[in-house]
């Protein structure tokens, strides 16, 4: 799985992501963006296209694989 | 640091503790590693989950388009940290440099970042708050539980409070075809953040989408049935709303109680810190090893008369965390101030609402582009003859221009024509914000005087 | 007398490499010769003006340009077609663009462009299959032109076999966007208007036909749509269709040709692309920065006196925003003259910004990605037969007229 977040302060609704990866990004009305916070590995290539095409570079995607033990509770 | 090598030692083998494992905590941790911090890093979080993103919780998740437990934040780099999740911090010993945890463990630090954020304000009557079907929405678990209940198709949802979160919830419920009543104490939705002129547009949007919007009323009591399920709400106008799901959306409370008595300048209004994110102690002296970032921090902003600004904004949490992290491991001359112009967004009823600056500081508003009736416009807010904020309804691409006006303290009303100024925009209107002494649900920006050592603030327990 | 920088930009002799002139220009971020337009060449100023509501795209807001040798040909009153949304301001612009977007993109048609991937791939591979003699290929004639024309025809529902009819009109109209100091503005305006009129008549017939037998194409949907913004008038429909038809291929031809030219000048990147077609994504973004198909926007005007970098630009002045120069501004891009697909945070101006940002951007991106990845994969040992290649006259929509290359063979 790939994690996604969009900095919607930056987003200006150019909708490039929603054109190029409609499985992950959808426009809600003319300008508001909804995105899947997690996407299948199978969509990684489209996600990369969407992120690269964002004119304001607002799409954040996992840059590292989260190490398995990294989030376990260390109590 | 005095060039005695102590900074280098800190970066090499120091101990940094971050209390709060959400957006600000994670971004700070990533920044620390990106800037070469090689010592031990501990992240402490009261929830048992790794850092997740909150904005989808009131939108995608309630619409059934995403699962609440699938909202973890993307990792921009490896943080190589020890995670203490599900264990809230319960105390701070500033002299000893230790954070105490709920399991009585203590974690020593050389530098501490506090990013404990806020929590949802609960329904004040405890017995009613515990009725089945009464929800708040702040955490992943809140959102999951609410989404499950909405899935069951309740007969009517009641949202108490029409701030941004309440309005987004109402929007999602309507989109799912659920009957929704919204009860708002103020004259209109969003009125605390955007004033009455723009609030009237928000009200129109709600009604056009079939929300039973009731303004100027308070919910006086929630009533349960024999099995302990909520069945009705009683309103101050004497009416009753039959409902099986109630969402209490009355704003947030800052998570600072655990700092009571610690000597840190922390209270219900947050943790006072300087523009470099260093926290003040109760004497008003800035600490050099304790930093604050995100929703819980409040710091002076040069664009707003150096008043202390506390911002419950996603962008603020991310940027302030980066600055705090940088400053924690920098020489004093290399520190940078947190001066970002406040900005936030909301999407509701198919409209994208974005704001820059601090509209709630404005006394007047001018519709400089578009038209209120189209729900597509820019509102510019003025305060004492200068532009102090702006809001865009489905007009986001123009907003950078208005941000520049705010940054350059440009004159209000703006003396120039724009590409589509129409009849709305001929003159400024009274922005119609509610009396600040009357609490509202809406504002996500609050200002306080320059009083980090205010005893009342420090010692009054929250509520 | 030395030529003004403005004339140097327009001078055909500089078409192959205008970037040194842009570098000169950036020394004066707001450049103005008496009687000429105000030329903005630095990144932050261009970006800021693209988001400035005091800047109009509507030529009717221009002050008189009488006596200005660089003035654009004026729209004649009796012009066959009103301006398309590219040359309009809000609210008309917003309304028309929304209506045009309805059958093209999200929220109403989110799968239109994404759903063209298979078709794009097939067209591209068919064109490469059809390349005859690998010893001498004109990439423009054999690939970069036919590809986007085929795509826009299918998208709009324009019969591909009519290409020879609208090609000349489209070229004339595209050329009229190019400010030419030496041409007689009246003559040029007349030529462009004639072309617009004829293109309009051609499209009118087509639309009539689509109204009777609507298909899945955009023309049919635009002609029959009734959305929240109502329907377009016939004149609006014709203007919009003309705009899409012209913009839909005149620019993409150049993006693809400039792209292959740039890759052939950077064989290391070409090799990487051959090995990993996913590199096409950042390659195209960097191309949009490095060699943008629209070099400058010469069509904006001020609605008030505005101050830019200490210079007051008077109301009604003509503004040129030199996107290609902003893209090479060292204040924004490190080592800007280096072609580097690994460049982080590449917020180029290649497709504009603000409300007039390129309507067809997602399609142009996909077309260029498919085209360059396929060329890289299939051409064996490709090389340029002449460098620089011969360019088209146009300084605004800048690109090679021909790109002669050869290769050892075509891989299957």
TrEMBL record, chain A:
Pfam families: Fer4_13. InterPro entries: 3Fe4S_ferredoxin, Fe-S_cluster_ET. Its cofactor is [3Fe-4S] cluster. One of its GO terms (molecular function) is iron ion binding. Keywords: 3Fe-4S, Electron transport, Iron, Iron-sulfur, Metal-binding, Transport. Ferredoxins are iron-sulfur proteins that transfer electrons in a wide variety of metabolic reactions. This is Ferredoxin. The lineage of its organism: Bacteria, Bacillati, Actinomycetota, Actinomycetes, Kitasatosporales.
Automatic annotation (TrEMBL), chain B:
Its cofactor is FAD. It comes from the Bacteria. Gene3D superfamilies: 3.30.390.30, FAD/NAD(P)-binding domain. Keywords: FAD, Flavoprotein, Oxidoreductase. GO terms for molecular function: oxidoreductase activity, acting on NAD(P)H. One of its GO terms (cellular component) is cytoplasm. Residues 15-321 form the FAD/NAD(P)-binding domain. Residues 432-453 are annotated as: Disordered. Residues 344-413 form the Reductase C-terminal domain. This is FAD-dependent oxidoreductase. The lineage of its organism: Bacteria, Bacillati, Actinomycetota, Actinomycetes, Kitasatosporales.
Automatic annotation (TrEMBL), chain C:
Coiled coil: none annotated. Pfam families: p450. Residues 60-88 are annotated as: Disordered. Keywords: Heme, Iron, Metal-binding, Monooxygenase, Oxidoreductase. CDD domains: CYP164-like (cd20625). It comes from the Bacteria. One of its GO terms (molecular function) is iron ion binding. The keyword Membrane does not apply. Belongs to the cytochrome P450 family. This is Cytochrome P450. It comes from Streptomyces sp. NBC_00119.
